[in-house]
């Protein structure tokens, strides 16, 4: 029976949330197409990992094991997954869109003459897959045209696009899959992951965040948002380009490569709303966006928006807030 | 050290984007274009490596005729040569998938025998984030993605790779290798007047893309405007009026102040 294979990731003995979302997306796909759902964990999965998956839909969970897979390398993962696909012949392979997947899945798809449909946000009948263009300014729908059993269609799903809390009860079989990697030369030598210097601000616990993006234009303009933050008793946060430029320290960066925050109030000023920023803040209770572009994607997640020039609106907001205080 | 940098011409960040009549791509008429953001950082990294190590930087792009301007800009900033894989039919160009682009790039650079191939990490228009990785597979060389820093070693190259949530990792690998470069890592240089003058004399080789060899396996059916997830209430009026409305809403409706 042909299948949908979902390749999961684990961290600290748990399947990651985005992997559970990918599992849910894969389960939907399998159900609509009448295909079997299988899952795989590459590396050294423990029983704990398996237990979080059991009964959540997959027919078989493949524990892909080899000592060359203990540390992630693109060579090792590409070859191991290629062998698993050759052996189990799925029609679709689904990944969570993580930095690791971005690193090796395109290489894997190339081995099968396919193109990874990356960062998928929705599945339509067909099936066709939706994904964003122009950093979220447009949506688009894609179809793979030349795939089939053993030569699958590859896709990765965006964080937060599918609900993780799926339960399709059933028996799950655990099977060990040992790829033959003994003669494989792994060309890269990965070092241990490490963290940058200790954090001195805890953005995650601040009830109000005033967050500034590239719309501020210059470092010299920062005082207008600092004054707003002061009027609100808020911490200052920023999008990545502001921290890259060194205008604010890295530890104030919100997003996939920075902090994840969920304050009571998040005010995004001159921030376009690229997905890598949104994943770090869309859980906020109330989101306000100030942007001169009425089509900026940030407005898709905002509760309140003001369309206009931040250099007019931010000082007016500070004035209104200070008037309230007195 | 011979370094090839793959650069893409994309609509400018602030360009007004409109969906075309067929609903399959955007209207490219009169749109301002620029060098893809992360490609500018890939080019900068290449130029700095060349300044430190000696060697040559070659900029390559697959694109329409006007992509030649973007290659000239790279030459003006200091690249030594350019290769333009020209696709003159606009429909054929917008229908190429990442594998097709990577195949065109691979066949144009295979004979160059580079030590290093750099690409941006993601294009600002399509955003697949994969053309570089595919290219590495086609060239049969190792790669690393999301690279912030590079350092030449006695055995090859050592790179700093960005992981999620503020984590990092070093990776060592032999050359030739391919790296996809993250934005924001360096300060970008501007082209000097002298640079612009010199660029006119530099070699920019145009090759015609062999489209027959790269039939797409991925098809874009439609391009649409995004639908809203939350119903955003847009507050209007003068800046003072809108600001006052917002404060009132935050206090009385959202109750977050
Ligand atoms: C792997 C990866 C990881 C990333 N990680 C992160 C991350 O952790 N955090 C993050 O933020 N980004 C991250 N990014 C970058 C992200 O993709 C975007 O490029 C970035 O978030 C854009 O920042 P911005 O919104 O400030 O700038 P832009 O996208 O340039 O937006 C500026 C906005 O300001 C508006 N504007 C301009 N002038 C004015 C004015 N006068 N008044 C009002 N509005 C104005 C514009 O309309 C525009 O919407 C990552 C990217 C990648 C590929
Ligand atoms: N048409 C092209 N010409 C040259 N390089 C390209 C082209 N398309 C993509 N690239 C390179 O591949 C990177 C990733 O693009 P993408 O996979 O579309 O996100 C870009 O940052 C460029 O460096």
Q: What does this protein structure show overall?
A:
The complex is a heterodimer of chains A (326) and B (257). Chain A is α/β, with parallel strands linked by helices. Chain A contains eight helices and 18 strands. Chain A has helices at residues 17-33, 47-53, 74-88, 99-111, 223-232, 240-244, 275-278, 310-325, and strands at residues 3-8, 10-11, 14-15, 36-42, 60-64, 92-96, 117-124, 128-133, 138-144, 153-157, 173-177, 189-190, 194-195, 208-212, 235-238, 265-269, 286-291, 304-307. Chain A has a nine-stranded mixed β-sheet with strand order 9-8-7-10-6-1-4-5-11, sandwiched between helices. A five-stranded parallel β-sheet of chain A has the order 15-14-16-17-18. The longest helix of chain A has 17 residues, at 17-33. The radius of gyration of chain A is 22 Å and the shape is elongated. The mean pLDDT of chain A is 93. With 257 residues, chain B is of the alpha/beta class. Chain B has helices spanning 37-53, 67-77, 90-94, 98-109, 131-139, 193-199, 239-252, and strands at residues 2-6, 9-11, 33-35, 56-63, 81-86, 116-120, 143-152, 157-162, 167-173, 177-181, 203-208, 218-224, 233-234. In chain B, the strands form two sheets. Chain B has a nine-stranded mixed β-sheet, with helices on both faces. In chain B, strands 2-3 form a two-stranded antiparallel ribbon. Strand 9 (138-144) of chain A pairs antiparallel with strand 12 of chain B, so a sheet runs across the interface. The complex binds flavin-adenine dinucleotide (FAD) and adenosine monophosphate. Flavin-adenine dinucleotide sits between chains A (135, 213-215, 239-241, 253-258, 270-272, 274, 276-277, 280, 291-293, 296, 309-311) and B (13, 121-122, 146).
Which tags fit this structure?
heterodimer, A: 326 residues, alpha/beta, Rossmann fold, 2 domains, nine-stranded mixed β-sheet, 18 strands, 26% strand, B: 257 residues, two-stranded antiparallel sheet, 28% strand, globular, binds flavin-adenine dinucleotide, binds adenosine monophosphate
């Amino acid at each position: 029976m042909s299948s949908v294979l979902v390749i999961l990731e684990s961290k600290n003995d748990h399947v990651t949330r985005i992997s559970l979302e990918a599992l849910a997306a894969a389960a939907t796909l399998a159900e609509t197409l009448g295909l079997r759902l299988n899952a795989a964990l590459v590396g050294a999965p423990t029983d704990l990992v398996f237990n979080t998956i059991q009964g959540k839909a997959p027919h078989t969970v493949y524990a892909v094991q080899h000592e060359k897979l203990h540390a992630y390398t693109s060579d090792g993962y590409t070859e191991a997954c290629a062998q698993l696909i050759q052996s189990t012949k799925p029609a679709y392979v689904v990944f969570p869109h993580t930095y690791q997947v971005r690193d090796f899945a395109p290489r894997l798809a190339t081995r099968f003459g396919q193109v990874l449909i990356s960062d998928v946000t929705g599945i339509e009948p067909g099936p066709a897959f939706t994904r964003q263009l122009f950093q979220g300014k447009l949506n688009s729908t894609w179809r793979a045209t030349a795939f089939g059993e053993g030569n699958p269609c590859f896709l990765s799903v965006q964080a937060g696009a599918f609900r993780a809390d799926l339960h399709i009860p059933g028996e799950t079989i655990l099977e060990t899959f040992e790829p033959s990697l003994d003669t494989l030369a792994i060309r890269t030598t990965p070092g241990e992951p490490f963290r940058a210097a200790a954090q001195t601000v805890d953005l995650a616990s601040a009830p109000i965040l005033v967050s500034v993006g590239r719309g501020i234009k210059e470092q010299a303009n920062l005082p207008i948002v600092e004054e707003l933050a002061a009027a609100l008793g808020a911490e200052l946060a920023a999008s990545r380009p502001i921290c890259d430029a060194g205008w604010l320290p890295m530890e104030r960066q919100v997003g996939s490569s920075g902090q994840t925050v969920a304050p009571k109030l998040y005010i995004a000023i001159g921030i376009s709303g690229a997905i890598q920023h949104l994943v770090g803040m869309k859980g906020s209770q109330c989101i306000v966006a100030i942007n001169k572009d009425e089509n900026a994607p940030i407005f898709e997640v905002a509760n309140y928006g003001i369309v206009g020039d931040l250099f007019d609106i931010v000082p007016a907001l500070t004035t209104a807030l200070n008037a309230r205080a007195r | 050290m011979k370094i090839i940098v793959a650069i893409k011409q994309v609509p400018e960040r602030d360009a007004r984007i409109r969906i075309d009549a067929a609903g399959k791509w955007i209207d490219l008429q009169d749109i301002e274009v620029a060098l893809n953001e992360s490609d500018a950082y890939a080019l900068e990294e290449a130029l700095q490596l060349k300044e430190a190590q000696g060697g040559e930087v070659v900029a390559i792009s697959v694109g329409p005729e006007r992509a030649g301007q973007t290659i000239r800009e790279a030459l003006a900033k200091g690249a030594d040569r350019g290769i333009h894989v020209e696709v003159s039919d606009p429909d054929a160009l917008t229908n190429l998938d990442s594998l097709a682009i990577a195949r065109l790039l691979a066949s144009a650079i295979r004979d160059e025998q580079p030590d290093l191939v750099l690409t941006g990490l993601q294009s600002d228009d399509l955003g697949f984030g994969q053309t570089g990785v595919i290219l590495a597979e086609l060239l049969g060389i190792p790669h690393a993605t999301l690279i912030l820093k590079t350092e030449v070693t006695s055995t090859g190259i050592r790179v700093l790779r960005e992981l999620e949530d503020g984590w990092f990792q070093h990776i060592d690998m032999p050359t030739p290798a391919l790296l996809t470069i993250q934005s924001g890592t360096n300060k970008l240089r501007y082209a000097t007047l002298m640079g612009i003058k010199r660029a006119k004399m530099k070699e920019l080789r145009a090759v015609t893309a062999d489209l027959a060899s790269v039939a797409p396996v991925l098809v874009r059916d439609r391009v649409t405007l995004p639908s809203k997830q939350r119903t955003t209430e847009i507050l209007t009026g003068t800046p003072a009026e809108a600001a006052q409305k917002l404060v009132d809403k935050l206090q009385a409706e959202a109750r977050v102040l």
